[in-house]
Amino acid sequence: MAREILAALRAAEADPTVHVLGLTGVGRFFCAGGDIHGIAEQLPANRPRYLRELATAAHDLALAIVRSRLIAVAGVNGAAAGAGLGLLLVSDWVLVSENARLVAAYSTIGLTPDTGVSFLLPRAVGHQRAVDLTLNGRRLTGVEAVEWGLANQSVPAADFAERLAQVEDGFLQGAVHALGPTKRLLRAPVIQDLETHLLAETHSIAELSANPDSVDLLDRYANG
């Protein structure tokens, strides 16, 4: 899925008439993160390689969104967990349904964050709140996501689709030629550090996936 979204992003960037990238989900989830059952199907000895491949694909997408000239508007219609939280963090404008839930989820399965979460989350909410989300299992509602600085606006579920379209259209009413250059200036201070940090996240989540305690936690979670 990460590779498919990346391909769509590249196609949109190649069209000079496109200025906004919309990211949203369908149903109960914006993005539920990695496929826990898919990971659990791997033998413990194979999980580092498998997680490295998954994380690399997700990180390629995250970095491409941050570097893109397109304004990324995240429409968080439902749960954003793990890498889903990362997609929210690399977006430029975030609308959240009041029904949405934001959760880091990594500690539940004995893994460390990926998709830039450990880099961008403390910068967005502060160290203590980042610890609460990543290590203490804190879940945020859509309203709390705005209060914590993770989203620009929350709306009732019934108004979500209409408001998301309004936000996307709103960016196109101004000086669209200035959107990309302004985003580039806003993102420039973090891009190089983020790229380096994503490599560290990939190494950490891959190596930890073979830890016996992590294997046990993930398997128990996958099996309900």
UniProtKB/TrEMBL annotation:
Subcellular location: Peroxisome
InterPro entries xref list: ClpP/crotonase-like_dom_sf, ECH/Chromodomain_protein, Enoyl-CoA_hydra/iso
Keyword line: Isomerase, Peroxisome
Top enzyme class: isomerase
Pfam families xref list: ECH_1
Main location: other
GO MF annotation list: isomerase activity
Listed PANTHER family: ENOYL-COA DELTA ISOMERASE 2 (PTHR43684:SF1), PTHR43684
Name assigned to this protein: 2-(1,2-epoxy-1,2-dihydrophenyl)acetyl-CoA isomerase
